[in-house]
Amino acid sequence: MIYISDTKPPGPALNRYKGIITEILPVNSTVRVRVAIGSNNMLTELQKSTFDEMNLGVGKEVYVIVKLRRLRYVEP
């Protein structure tokens, strides 16, 4: 699972990355958000209500928190 925060999360930097939102794709009641972290991209889904509350947009800097137990790799 990948979480997005618009503020730097507390605690150690382990599995936490700073990136830039490069794509936003609404899908029914969720929103898919692509975040560029260096030369890599991560894709996560948020509930639309959560997305709206966070005031996210393309080009915005965010922090990505990765929960490795729930992560899936998808071939491009």
Short description:
With 76 residues, this protein is mainly beta.
What does the model show?
The model has no long low-confidence stretch (mean pLDDT 88). A 5-stranded antiparallel sheet has the order 1-5-2-3-4. A hairpin with a 2-residue loop joins strand 2 and strand 3 (30-37). The protein is globular. Helix content is 9%, strand content 50%. It has a single domain (2-70), classed as RNA polymerase II/Efflux pump adaptor protein, barrel-sandwich hybrid domain (OB fold (Dihydrolipoamide Acetyltransferase, E2P), Beta Barrel). With 76 residues, it is mainly β. The protein contains 1 helix and 5 strands; from the N terminus they run E-E-E-E-H-E.
Summary tags:
76 residues, mainly beta, single chain, OB fold (Dihydrolipoamide Acetyltransferase, E2P)
Instruction: Write the H/E string, N to C.
Output: EEEEHE
**Amount of helix:** under 10%
Number of strands: 5
How far the N terminus sits from the C terminus, by CA atoms, comes to: 18 Å
Considering the protein shown, what is the CATH homologous superfamily? RNA polymerase II/Efflux pump adaptor protein, barrel-sandwich hybrid domain
Record the strand order, biggest sheet.
1-5-2-3-4
| Mean residue pLDDT | 88
Rg from alpha-carbon coordinates: 12 Å
How many domains, in number, for the residues? Answer: 1
CATH overall fold name: OB fold (Dihydrolipoamide Acetyltransferase, E2P)
| Shape call | globular
Give the biggest sheet: 5 strands, antiparallel
Annotated CATH architecture:
Beta Barrel
Report low-confidence residues grouped into runs of 5 or more. Answer: none
Strand content: over 45%
